[in-house]
Amino acid sequence: MRNIYLIGFMGTGKTTVGRELARRAARPFLDLDDLIELTARRSISDIFAKEGEAAFRRLEKKILAQASREKGFVIACGGGIVMDQDNIRTMKDTGTIICLVATPQVILQRTRAQAHRPLLNVSDPEKQIDLLLKLRAPYYAQADKVVDTAQLTPAQVVDRIIRAGAAKKQNARKRKPKAK
Fold first, then answer.
1. Nearest to 18 by CA among 109, 171, 149
2. With contact defined as beta carbons under 8 Å apart, do 99 and 7 qualify?
3. Which of 164, 131, 130 is nearest to 147 (CA)?
4. CA distance 102 to 94
5. Sign of the C-alpha dihedral, residues 136, 132, 57, 20?
6. Distance CA 133, CA 127 (A)
7. What is the spatial distance between Cα 17 and Cα 170, in angstroms, rounded to a whole number?
8. Which residues pair with 97 in a beta bridge?
9. What is the DSSP letter of 153?
């Protein structure tokens, strides 16, 4: 069974939606950022601060390659994972990519109180969000499905993903034809 990769900018709901989608589709859930922190034994903010974004992206690519070998997972990815075309290829080869989107204002509202967002630790975070969204737009557009989360609850987002046929249950069995 193919994986489901949730991509999109920070604050669009990838982790929250991913957990609910995994629960409802009876699939295991994996948050790539959590796995990166577990592997590195430190926070993403610390990696960014001490080694820079490039070092983080190399680690992210390595962890994605490892995670993509699993089957049937719902995987929430970091917002910038799409900036490497190899990562997109890996996700497309092993699963379905769902991009969650929201407006810069909604993203800012959702992330405002979160200090662990190194890319938003700038003087004008809304401007930074807008700039990063524009830079990443062509990469996010390569997703198999896009869902705008701005006005939806996580459950409603999951409903849309399931209705689109992107999430079949892990333990779903094919029905045998009835004997005549």
1. 149
2. yes
3. 164
4. 26
5. negative
6. 10
7. 17
8. 5
9. -
> Residues 6 or more apart from 154 whose CB is under 8 A from it?
13, 16, 17, 20
Structure tokens at 96: 């379905």
This prediction's pTM: 0.86
Distance of CA 171 to the CA centre of its chain: 23
| pLDDT the model gives residue 180 | 46
CA distance 3 to 65: 13
Q: In angstroms, how far is CA 95 from the centroid of its own chain?
A: 12
Residue 29: beta bridge partners? 74
| Other beta carbons less than 10 A from residue 66's beta carbon | 12
User: Which of 51, 13, 97, 133 is closest to 60 using CA atoms?
Assistant: 51
pLDDT means per 10 residues, the chain with 180 residues, are 94 95 96 94 90 92 96 94 95 97 89 60 76 92 95 95 75 46
Residues 85 and 124: their CA atoms lie apart, in Å, by 29
Secondary structure percentages of the chain, helix, strand, coil, to 5: 50, 15, 35
